[in-house]
Each structure stands twice: as structure tokens, then as C-alpha cells.
Amino acid sequence: MDETLLMIPGPTNVPRRVLEAMSAPILNHRGVEFGEILEDTNAMMSEVFQTNNESYLLTGSGTSGMEALLANVLEKDDKVLNIVGGKFGERLMQLTETFNGQSIELTVPWGHAVNPDDVKKILEENDDIKAVTMVHNESSTAVVNPLKEVGNVLKDYDALFLVDTVSSLAGDDVKVDEYNVDACITGSQKCLAAPPGMAAITINDEAWSVIDKVDSQTYYLNMKKYRKSGDKKPSQTPFTPSVSLVYAMQEALSIVLEEGLDERIKRHALGAKATRSAVKGLGLELFAEENAYSNTLTAIKMPEGVTDSDLRGTMRNKYGIELAGGQDHLKGNVFRIGHMGMTGLNELSMTFAALEMTLKELGQDIELGSGVVALEKAYL
Amino acid sequence: MDETLLMIPGPTNVPRRVLEAMSAPILNHRGVEFGEILEDTNAMMSEVFQTNNESYLLTGSGTSGMEALLANVLEKDDKVLNIVGGKFGERLMQLTETFNGQSIELTVPWGHAVNPDDVKKILEENDDIKAVTMVHNESSTAVVNPLKEVGNVLKDYDALFLVDTVSSLAGDDVKVDEYNVDACITGSQKCLAAPPGMAAITINDEAWSVIDKVDSQTYYLNMKKYRKSGDKKPSQTPFTPSVSLVYAMQEALSIVLEEGLDERIKRHALGAKATRSAVKGLGLELFAEENAYSNTLTAIKMPEGVTDSDLRGTMRNKYGIELAGGQDHLKGNVFRIGHMGMTGLNELSMTFAALEMTLKELGQDIELGSGVVALEKAYL
């Protein structure tokens, strides 16, 4: 291989087709030709979000999408229930505070998923909660939160359901309309397998009716401006977008729909299951609790006697495979394997072969082949 | 030509070298290899800003840079002097209001440059002005404001000088240190000739000392986070950046420095002068007042009896050349030619040849060759 295999939870390896689409000449972003590309791409975004809402591309990191979720909705002292079970849940809480909301934190131990009953309890106790934030797939802990079930709880309350699906959309089921999600964001560089640098957001009528009453606390990410420009003919963005990344998103979304969204999600689920089998086959331990396993990445406890820099350094420098470390207090205690985007059996088998060799070289008592064989069995 | 020639004030045509650099495989954005690219690119940014400050790339449109200028500096009711002589000056005033500042507007008629004495007068009358905002090159009117002279006025006051050089950096002199600019932003898609989607900012110690005392009103564009991540080894960004566009910026900045910053600015000045000669040769009228002419684009009054859609439509559909229209109240009254980035004699001569033919076809009484000959003479 002449390039590093990215087995991190984003950015993921980008198909050649997408990289080539990205390098097309720049079009006038206010012209008819670009407007058609934008409309087509936004329509595919809505299809992947499984919604009838309009969707909008934002030129920015996933965090710009998170900022858009809150800065358009909140006014001073608005109460927000933040479900916090990892770094990205925390970020939504920090954003709530940046935009002058009052955060009610529902703390979930790292590695666990939220219990929908706990959400219900807090909503019962506080009838003035304006919004609930949740990260669907918490990539810091490799945990998936029960999107459908929490959405079901929210049905009986006025609070908006604001959801981050940055690391799950197109790799796990995100049925925005069916699950009562009021506003949902994602990023380009995870399961969609486009390069990083774009976020996308979809907003339903209920959320719009709140947004329309609020003076947005952001100018760049003011969604009212995006709606107004999006409605123009030709369709536009309020500020010069990343034209090349819009091309990339169009191509990446076409690939998703050619594969079929359901097929793609099934492929992610199988990759996740096979990865867990391989981890267990190797005698390693999963970090997340059972029934909370993510479809798109897996967190593994660092084996006793192995340092993060030895393990990931060997994988990177000797085998050309990039794994992710732990974040915050998990630094050095877990490592993470992303299996999202275009990643499948071949990438996982080479990763586990290299991981077996790395662990052997680092003096671990493991049986060569035990991970790869378990992986193969899961796929057969 | 198989692609449209962009003669608009950004995005500009991007050199093949840059498009190819952009399509390289994605690197881990927290790794050593990417960190080196980021450091190299940021260092070149500082060189082009002509500053010893650190510079930072932002994944976003130019407007994200404008937001960063104000959202990190302002607290409620801070007084800001906004110099407003066009659409982008207005935008800095709107941003001031979004971030709860008290705007003092210095209105400059569209087509004119600000008079530094007027800035001084307002600063004398208000000793509590926290910042002055100015757009160096107002692309809505094709006017350049006197950056050096306003910076010289600011030397005697505490107010920060916050400057937008989105459409001038690398096409006109922006000596951040020498001109007393405290924070300065630019965009990727103008004179730097990279694709749109990145902004850059540089901040001096005086501005940092203010920023350090303020709770930023943005999370995504919180510059304290950018500084902290930038200082890490390897250097990083706080949120997953647009990796591909960082590659593009590195290549585009390399091209700028290979050409030589001074040479590039001279080339822009010559292109601007030749364009004005050609406009006059054709018997058309410039919109901006003399001595306020931009180096990077030219605004031309729409000839009597010609509509914007006829003129720009013919140029686009028949000749494959994209010109810009007027913005806001100038819509239909002016058209604009960008001569920024890689644009030079060849692009201008084909533009004026096509413009002559277009005007003739639209029934205007012009002499074929009168624009092109004036252009040639200016270049000879």
C-alpha cells in the first residue's frame, strides 16, 4: 500500500471517484449549473436522513453543525437537557453554555447508553425544557444511544429533539421523521466517506417554528439565511461554499444510494459484529457495555503491559494502519477501530492480521490467527 | 475552452497543481505528517500577511473569518466603529450587532473610500471604542480603502483594528505588522487562487490580550481553542479540518511565494490598470471614484440600454466567460470584472474581446478593438 489505511473513526479513506469529482474546475457558486448540483446533493442528504425536510450543507467541520443546532434555537436561560456520556455529548453541553442556555446534565457513565426512562423522568420534573440534545453514536466511547426509543419519549413533550449523527448517518439507522428528530446534523468524513470539511443539517417544521422566533446567536451559521438562499432559483448558499467539497459530497452520496442505504447499514452492522468477534477471539476486552455497541467503531481496552504509543505506533509505522487512541480520561486506556464508510472485510482482515503481529511483537501472549479467524467466521 | 473562465471576484480559476494537490488521499488530521503540512501552511500564511504573528486556517467561508474577528473580541454593549461603504462593510456591522456590540457606523458612499480623518474624528469623540472594523478591498464596489493610513490613525488609540482582506490579500499590499492591524482575515478563493471553503486569520498580541479576557461568543470559531491546538506537537486544529483544502492552501501559497509576493501584487496592479484603460477605451464608465480603484476587481457602469441579463448572459452562454453583477442597490446598474488570483493579460484580452462583441451584438455603438487595444497598450 502506498497510503496509510485510516481505521480511525473519521476521517475515513475516500474513494478515488470522490477525490476525482472533487478536483473538477470551480464553478460560479451563484450560477445555474452549481445550483443544480447543490439541489441534487441536498435532496440526497434528505434521502439519507430519511426525511421529507429540506437539508442544508454547511462549509465547516462537524462541530459547525453542532453549533448550528444550538445557536439557532437558544435564547438566554433556556433550559436544555444534555445527555452526556462521552466527549461529544459534553461538547453539546458546552455549546449550550456558550449560547447562554441553562444546561441540565443527564450523566451517563462512559461506555453505557442512555436509558430513555431517565430522559422521561427529567422531562416530567421540568416542564420548561426547550430542547434535548443527544449524540446518536458517541465515537469517544463506541456507544450507540437508543435514538428511536428516546425519540419515542420526546413525542409526548414540547421539547425539541436535537441530534448529532456525525458518526452514524449512513452507517446506522437514522430515520429522522419516524424517530421524531426535530433537527439533525452530520459530517462528511465518517460513514459518508467524503473528505472532512462539510457538515449537513436537516430541520423540521417544529424546529423551524422555534428558530423563526429566535434571534440567532450566530451569523455564519444562521439557518434562516441558509433557508432563504436555498429557496432561491438557482439554489444557493448564503456564503461562498466549499464548491469542491460539494462536488465530493454529491459523488459520495451517489455512492451511498447506489449501494443502497439499507445495504450500507447492514454492511456496517456486519463489520461491527465481526470486529467484536475478532477482538474477543484475540482475548481482548470491549470497552462498551453489551447492547450499546456502535455500528461504526469499536473501543477496545488496552491490554495490560502495552502502551498506547507502542501499540498504535507499531500499527502505524510498521504496518501503515492508523488506529485511534482514547480521548480525555480514556487516553492510554483504550484504543479504537473505526469501521465506517467504505471499510469492510478486506480492511478489517489486514487490520487484525497486523494487530495480531503487533501484539505478539510487544510480548503479548496471543495466538496468531485467533482474531482473523473469528473475523472470517463472522463474515461467512 | 472546455471550462468557464471565472472573471468574477472569487472564486477564481484554480491552477491544476492546486486541484491535484487537493485530491491526495486523506491523512489523519491528528498525525505528525498532517501536523507538518499545517505548520508549513500556517507559516506561509503569516508570510503573505507580512506578519510575525501566528496564523490559523479556519474550515469555513470568508464570512466565518469575519465572524471570528468579532465573536472573540466583543462583550455586550462594547462600542465598535464600523466603516461601511459596501456590502461587506455592512456585514461587519451586522456581525457587530449579532455579537451584541454597539455599532457606530461611519457611512461611506458606495464607490468611495473612507477618509482616515473621519475615523480619527469619531475616535476623538468616543474614547471607549473597543474596535474599528474595515474591509480593505470592498468587492461590492471595487474600492480599496486606505489600509496604511487608517492603521496610522489607529496607532494613537486603544481601539483594535480588525480588518477583512478577503479579496485583497496577495493582490494588494497587506502589511499586517507595519500597518498596525491587530487581527486580519482572508479567504482561500480570491487572490490566493485556492478553492473556496477556507478562511485564515492572524492575531497580534494586543488583540490576544483582549480575546483572553473575553468569553468567546462562538464555540466553533473560538480562537483560544485554535491557538491551544495549534501549539500542540504535532500542530492541530481543534476540530477536524478540511484536510483536502489544507493541501490546496499549501500548494496555492507555495505558488504565491514562488512567484514572489511583491511580483504578484505588481501583476495585480498592472491587470487593474490595464482593465481600467480597456474600459475607458471602450467608452464605458468606471463605478468607483478615482484614487479608490481596487487592485483586484473593477466595477463598470452598465451602459444605457443594456440589461444585466443580456450582457452577462451573452458573455456566459456565448463566450464561456463569467462576469459578476451588481449587489444590492447596484443590481443591474453595474457589472464587475475580477482580475485576481492567476488572472493576467490572456484572460483579460479574451474577456475584453468577448465584451466588445457582446456589446456590438446588443446594439451598442462601440468600436471593435477599442478595449483590447487599450489593454495591450497598458501592458506594453
Structure summary, number of beta strands of chain A: 14
Question: How would you name the oligomeric state of the polypeptide chains in this document?
Answer: homodimer
User: Please, how many helices of chain A?
Assistant: 13
Most residues in contact, chain pair and counts: A-B, 55 and 55 residues
Low-confidence stretches of chain A: none
- What overall geometry of chain A do the principal axes of the alpha carbons give? globular
Structural class designation of chain A: alpha/beta
Give the neighbour order of strands across the main sheet of chain A.
Answer: 2-10-9-8-5-3-4
Task: Indicate the radius of gyration of chain A in whole angstroms.
Answer: 21 Å
Query: How far apart, in Å, are the first and last alpha carbons of chain A?
Result: 26 Å
Write the H/E string of chain A, N to C: EHHEHEHEHEEEHEEEHHHHEHEEEHH
The residue fraction in helices of chain A comes out at 40-55%
**What is the typical, i.e. mean, pLDDT of chain A?**
97
| Strand percent estimate of chain A | 15-25%
Main sheet makeup of chain A? 7 strands, mixed
